[in-house]
Amino acid sequence: MPLLLSSILLYSLTACAEIAGCFAFWTWLKLHGNPLWLIPGSLSLGLFAVLLTFSPSDHAGRAYALYGGIYIIMSLLWGWVMEHTTPDIWDIIGASLCLSGAAIILFAPHSHT
């Protein structure tokens, strides 16, 4: 699988795990949900941490930066699908800029120092 496609898939799955885990805590604390939300939330956040280690980057900081671009897109999609908050033009422009930055970080010919 090409690097771009596998990276997008990995980071999308990673973002889903993080967003779902954080949403479980959000539901418990902000929406006064059942504390049992903490169980799937904690498991999901653990999965997020493990998935992020499969990043194609050799450096944690770059992996987090790469992930950030995809995370922003996935967060907007989560809001659209799960919370019925349609992204507006400014959301789309901002997310596009972030995704462009993430692509530069991923594909730039970094020095090996």
Automatic annotation (TrEMBL):
Major location (coarse): membrane
Keyword Protein transport on entry: no
Name of protein: YnfA family protein
Pfam families registered for this protein in UniProt: UPF0060
Keyword Transmembrane helix attributed: yes
Taxonomic superkingdom: Bacteria
InterPro entries assigned to the protein according to its UniProt record, in alphabetical order: EmrE-like, UPF0060
Transmembrane segments: 34-52, 64-83, 89-108
Topology relative to the membrane: Multi-pass membrane protein
Coiled-coil residues: none
Organism phylogeny: Bacteria, Pseudomonadati, Pseudomonadota, Alphaproteobacteria, Acetobacterales
Keywords: Cell membrane, Membrane, Transmembrane, Transmembrane helix
Subcellular location: Cell membrane
Similarity annotation: Belongs to the UPF0060 family.
Organism: Bombella saccharophila
